[in-house]
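assembly run, all chains below
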Amino acid sequence: MKATRRDLFKFAAGGATGLLLTPAPWRLVTDAALWSENWPGIPKPVRGELRTRFTHCALCPAGCAVKARCVGDQPISLIGLPGKPLCAFGLMGHQLPYHAGRVRQADADAVRAVIAKRAANETVAVLDLRPGRTASWTYRRAMAALPRGVYLAARSSVPAVNLDAVKIILSLGVPVLDGWGTPSNVQQARSHFRLIQAEPAESRTALLADQWLKIRPGTELELVEALATGRGGAGTGLNEKVIASVANELVQAGALFLAAEESPSVLELNRKLGAVGKTIVAQREAPVPRSWKPAPVTPINSVPERSIGVLLIDESAADSYVPWSKLEGKLAPDALVVTFASSQAGYGRQAKHLLPTAVYPESTGDIPPAIDSPLATFRLTTPLVAPPRGVVNPAQFIGGLAAIDAADALRERAGAIHAAGRGSVCTYADGRSIPVEDIQPDQFWKALNDGACWIDEPGGKLLPPVLRASTPAVVALNWEKRAARGPMPPLVSKLYQESNLRVRI
Amino acid sequence: MSHRGTLFFLAGALIALGAGWAGFPRVIYRSRPQPVEFSHKVHAEKAGMKCEDCHEIRADGSFAGIPRREKCAGCHEAAMGTTLAEKQFIDGYVTPQREVQWSVYARQPENVYFSHASHVKLAHLECATCHGDHGTSDSLRPYQEDRISGYSRDIWRAMKMNDCVACHRSHGFEKSCLDCHK
Amino acid sequence: MSARSYGMSIDIDKCTGCGACMVACAVENNVPPAPEGVNERKGITWIRVFRLDNGAEGVDRKWAFLPMLCQQCGENTPCVSVCPQQAVQLDPATGIVGQMPERCLGCRYCMAACPYHARYFNWWDPSWPAGMEKTLNPAVAPRMRGVVEKCNFCHGRWHAAKARAAAQGRRDLDPADYVPACVEACPTSAIRFGDLNDLENAPERGSFRLLEKLGTGPKIYYQTQRDWVREIAAAPGGTERAHG
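ok done. output:
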């Protein structure tokens, strides 16, 4: 019996009918749908026990307390403490280590050898972009120990602002409501002060201020002069009646004049307004071990031209940048520039070597008191995740050049604070505040690492600051400007690209 | 002769039926054993443990799932018995501090949200109602994975969405989509 | 357990336009950062803050910031009525309009139907920089390309609140446990969230809703003292009082 084509078709039809009566085709359709659900490349979030850990945000000197929700040890979201919310930047901080532009590898040993060789004969300068930390003390100690070491700070020390005493603020372009001070404190105090924003641009602070003085660009100091002397001010473009009324307002108690510029006239105006000692007070530092011998802070302007042989820049926790043009002239012709940073965006373009550092929330360090903190504080940023192998700790690197062991510097400092016996420690996990004298040194150190803040005692210790002519009244520390410098967490695209809420500078 | 066509038809049908019902399951599933030979029976009877000793519902309502190495190492730092399986477990996982990569029979798609807390603490369902007699088994059955979709054969037995919906409906507990999806 | 009607009350005068809510929402709901070339029309922002201005010039120009998110329409919900897949559902027990991306086939009919433009389409597969997928929230499933997503009032947190209540043997969740990410992040507490059926959460006098005349019954109530903002929002006049 020879099989014909018709037989074949009948066979196939039978097969098809039979197949439809089996689970196979229906199952294959469902499986295809299920397979399409598990689209490769769509990550599955890691599951695990949810834990809470505390640290401080190191992204700006406000150093807000952070409550991190972690899956196992990996933070998946950050929030502030009750009543002390984080800013938009702080909420994304846990994503910063994964920025695509991050530098991870470099040959630190080779660089160390080169610097060590040159340090014997040439001037070594450290440029600290966030002065006031314990790491800053390490740099100053290291520079004191080196034969020709110089410590440069990106900005001179600034006074502190006593927000409780402020009734009216005249801000010369300082983003008071957008990244200045500790944002949650400023928001809470907002109803107590009147804000006059003087700036040419339509910034967020200008939009939200009680009064916006739209001055012509470059006429800031002219406005200051006009307010101080009562004459002039035509160049600002403001009506003279407006200037007069602002001047009248300011002489009432509780005035504060904020500017980003370092200038004697800014300081003079604050003196005239009676701000010094009331709304502007001396910033104070937490106690330091007596054995630490620091080099003095050398103003950049007083460094001789073409004298620096090795320039080491700590960009790992940068607040203020110094324009390269200001530094260039101080470098010797064959100067070696090494920067400690996590991306090329800062001084990486000018430096010969870039040594990668840990980023928040991988980094360990302390955060200097915020500008709106008249009392000295000590708070640690403790690592929530492990940094990648190959990162360099700038304090230990630079300390090592001068045979100073900086590994325990934070603990030594905590010891000195405890020994001084002043102030209290606020633990975040339970919200308690314990006087330092009631706690053992080990417990104090453990509390600081688990998320706590040491605050000095109030009362009786607010001294008028010794303000030099070059001391700025205050410094603008604005994360939007910072955004132009370094890597931002990827989700910042929500604010810039994916909406028109903020405009990229 | 006139039945010849029917014969071919029936032949095709029978072969397809056979392939579909008997052959297809063998082909569509890829079978692998669990990495560790674990006996629930031994732990329940000899060690006197209950389900929730290892598979606990935490205070925040989350489910611990399959216990992690730390939990097992809490008792098995050193050998407690004489079986080879335990020795292999200690040498391969406890000592080098490696997590066991269990194949989870009940693994659901990522968009499914199942709350053990609601079903166990509020609805008072027994573990066996959904998981069968797994808790009294002496060994872990091999994990049969669907080659295309990646899910376990056990899902097809009693853990598809239809099965959840059927039980919810029969108890008059029909809920909204977001109750069970995330 | 009585039916709830979750809604929000947003004070436009308190919003400073900082964007913390936008970022907190993206972190909580695993919304990926934008790929190259994305603009504000193609971005995914389940909550988005808009700038409003009064149209004047120079220093007379005044600004306001309006957080805009899914209005969780309670009546004649437009997106629910047009979806061919029933991928979105108004839950009568909570009032939440739940979007199920796993059912969505990407026709975007709902995006056309939504009068508030509060729905977003995944034009591309989500892509996180290497390693960042570790920071994803396990309470919310990431979506693939080709599906629509929108605010679900942080259903991940709702699940967690219910699970916590269940672990304690309660059927009703504790309101303090269920706080959406935007509400938690707002530094001025401009956004408040709660069950509108609770007396203490009844919208304030003078509250208005957006596009009320469309009859969609949105559950987001806005307040402002500024008349020009009310004008832009086409809010009812000063003598009219909104009720819950």
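The mean pLDDT of chain C is 91.

Chain C touches chain B at residues 89, 91-94, 96, 98, 100-103, 139-142, 152, 155-156, 158-160, 162-167, 169, 171 (CB under 8 Å).

not gonna interpret more than that til we talk
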